[in-house]
Specification:
0% of the residues are buried. It is built from two helices and no strands. The protein has a domain of 55 residues. It is rod-shaped. 50% of the residues lie in helices and 0% in strands. The mean pLDDT is 83. The chain is mainly alpha-helical. InterPro entries: Cytochrome_c_oxidase_VIc (IPR051389), Cytochrome_c_oxidase_VIc/VIIs (IPR034884), Cytochrome_c_oxidase_VIc_sf (IPR037169). It is found in: Mitochondrion inner membrane. Pathway: Energy metabolism; oxidative phosphorylation.
Length: 103
């Protein structure tokens, strides 16, 4: 057999299995390096300021305002002279001598 001769029975429809062409790589966005530190710093500062404003408002609404209302109520119905007389009788004031007991 001569190597240059074709096969005596060639296949009329050759089946050629080729792998599919490779898919295109995903289009990745390149990071922006110029001004990256400044942009991140601005974002972090903005988040910190917003969080501090929100936490301050929440503290005022849930702690400060109720406390303020309780103090208003306390001083509105306070009987300070009666309390001062009672504390003087008990000897709690250093500048006021303790009155003698009447038995």
């Amino acid at each position: 057999m001569n190597p240059k001769c074709p096969d005596p029975n060639p296949d009329p429809c050759p089946q050629v299995c080729q792998p599919p062409p490779p898919s295109q790589p995903a289009c990745l966005v390149k990071p922006v390096m110029r001004g990256l530190h400044r942009a991140q710093t601005k974002r972090v500062l903005t988040q910190a300021i917003l969080l501090s404003i929100l936490s301050g408002a929440a503290y005022y609404l849930f702690v400060g305002a109720p406390r303020k209302q309780k103090y208003k109520e306390f001083y509105a119905k306070g009987e300070f002279e009666d309390w001062a007389d009672e504390m003087a009788r008990k000897g709690l004031f250093q500048a006021v001598p303790r009155p003698p007991r009447n038995n």
